[in-house]
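SAMPLE LOG
Freezer: B-3
Tube label: C17
Construct: single chain, 303 aa
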Amino acid sequence: MYWTVGKAFNRSYKKNSIVTSYNSNFSKRNDGNPNTHAFVASPEITTALAIAGSLSFNPLTDYLTNDKGEKFKLEEPLGIEMPVKGYAVEDAGFQAPAEDGSKVEVLVSPTSDRLQILEPFKAWEGTDLKGLKLLIKAKGKCTTDHISMAGPWLKFRGHLDNISNNMLIGALNFFNEKTDNVKNQLTGEYGTVPGTQRAYKAAGVGSVVVGDENYGEGSSREHAAMEPRFLGVRAVLVKSFARIHETNLKKQGMLGLTFADKEDYNKIQEDDSIDIIGLTSFAPANNCKWFLTMLMEHQIPLM
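STRUCTURE (predicted):
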């Protein structure tokens, strides 16, 4: 349940307020607007504010006016501590799976914006990764909301290609202090993070995302790991990971790497290309190494 003061999904980025009865109040979570103030309240208060249409409404003291011009107060809500009929329910919507599902075909419209059949990701080539471009060097806090924003994007959860258009659009670019604005090393022009990565993918060029401390904290969102994999990011190199996000990246076949020396984060430059070598013998006790083609004197181990 949520209630918005102003227009939802307002692309003019005007100041706005949203009151929700669920989840967290991350910036841009519900409407993509960085100027939206998000507040979390009880379902009762959220409902009362939605009915009144004003943040200043106090259901304990304030009156409302009905369509007949009569003033009235909202009755205090009453809760039910336990379900009257208990917890036993009959799910009339349950359909048992086929005993033999090998011949079951799932049909999805090829023109659907909401659903898309998932295709298996390609297996690792079994070789070192060379010529990778830096996609973004994220500065500071970068949660799963920064990596894969919620709000209006949630309708695309069943369509990996469409929802990938929100990949890292909330991350702060270290080099220009802007969000969703990175340099395309193939053209020298600046563009969106997903658009730039799609250009790399179309050219057959892999990329690397560099992050700060506790990269990927917050909600355990699978799409935050699936989108980079889908768009052709080959490795995520950070000072440190949030545990669940690191696990999710590896489940999707991504290289989740941490600096052996966190200060090496500062050596990454905007025009760097990166080689990651030693992958065939990569193990906890045997670090791989990465090279910057712009700074060949650096040979820095990764954990």
